[in-house]
Amino acid sequence: MLIALMARDKPGALQTRLDNRDAHLAYIKDTGVVAQAGPLLDDAGEMCGSLVILDVEDMAAAQAWADNDPYAAAGLFESVSLTAWKRVIG
After folding, report:
1. CA–CA separation, 25 vs 37, rounded Å?
2. pLDDT tens, residue order, the chain (90 aa)
3. Distance CA 46, CA 53 (A)
4. Domains of the chain and any CATH numbers
5. CB–CB of 80/6 below 8 Å?
């Protein structure tokens, strides 16, 4: 099941993102369930959120992945949504 995780950073939290980026990227690699991922950018081109496509068994697994993300543990996000997603192109 593909799940789109959309997360928006708290205002002014770029340093928190940068401080925890290596741990976040290691988590992506170690868990092996991320099909696609990348940061959202603001008008100035700075990272301000995340889009992650998870390939997991069910929504509970997606929620568990989101809850254990080092970015979440660091309190980076203002909001996080998980939505079932269907790949059509790509």
Report:
1. 10
2. 999 999 999 999 999 999 999 999 999 999 999 999 999 999 999 999 999 999 999 999 999 999 999 999 999 999 999 999 999 998
3. 21
4. 2-84 (3.30.70.1060)
5. yes
